[in-house]
Write a structure and sequence with these properties.
10 helices; two-stranded parallel ribbon; Alpha-Beta Plaits; three-stranded mixed sheet; 235 residues
Length: 235
């Protein structure tokens, strides 16, 4: 989102911002985008990337992100012949990112990478631009990333994940919160400061919520571990 603000303020050409509507995108993320677009005067296009109709994506393989981004960039290309810019930053290159291969296929440019800008610098830029509500937002990968590799992506799983994470965000506010759907069941991962605040009352609320979605096993709680639903070595 910071890139969108920079583009709007500095480029002397028409710029259109694209945001994907999807069960894998939390509702609050879409609401945040719409709020910023209205306040900043962006030209915003809300699009359906149709990844939920792609069986390759739904099978949740190790390179699921490739199919997600391929669908997204293909859809954006239907709206414009202009260059597509992504908010990918320098730190993203140190991780396994199959979506970057899709970006190559569509000749997507990554201005932050080209300028050697990482996450810390982006937060400083956001602060300098007065973007107080996003400068400290924790990383928020799509909800499908919470589903263990090889388990199919479904609307029901995504709704469960979104509902649980919204409940926990209402309880804790900002912080790293992940609801993982794994073969062993539901695992809630929290940063240590939040994990220490989980009490019996909150556990009961979460248990009641996941039962609505047909999960009757107990919910596990553990410290946050980046990418713990990703099983690259098994597939």
């Amino acid at each position: 989102m910071t890139l969108a603000h920079i583009a709007k303020r500095t480029l002397n050409v028409s710029v259109t911002m694209f945001h994907a509507l999807s069960p894998a995108v939390p509702r609050e993320a879409t609401e945040r985008i719409e709020r910023h677009a209205k306040n900043a005067g962006w030209q915003l296009e809300l699009i359906n990337a149709n990844e939920m109709q792609d069986p390759n994506y739904l099978e949740n393989p190790v390179n699921r992100c490739f199919f997600c981004k391929s669908n997204l960039y293909s859809r954006i290309a239907q709206f414009t012949s202009q260059p597509i810019l992504s908010g990918t930053n320098l730190d993203d290159l140190s991780d396994f990112r199959p979506g970057l291969e899709a970006a190559k296929d569509f000749e997507v440019r990554h201005p932050f990478v080209e300028a050697n800008i990482g996450k810390r610098d982006i937060r400083l830029i956001a602060e300098d631009l007065g973007l107080d509500d996003i400068k400290q937002l924790p990383a928020a990968p799509c909800l499908s990333s919470r589903i263990e590799t090889g388990l199919h992506v479904t609307n029901e799983k995504l709704m469960l994940i979104d509902s649980v994470e919204r409940l926990l965000k209402e309880e804790f506010g900002l912080g790293i919160i992940r609801c993982r759907v794994k073969r062993v069941g539901i695992v809630i991962e929290l940063e240590e400061t939040l994990l220490n605040k989980v009490d019996c009352n909150l556990r009961q609320k979460v248990d009641n919520l996941v039962r609505i979605y047909g999960h009757n096993k107990g919910v596990e709680y553990s410290s946050y571990k980046q990418g713990s639903a990703f099983l690259r070595e098994k597939l």
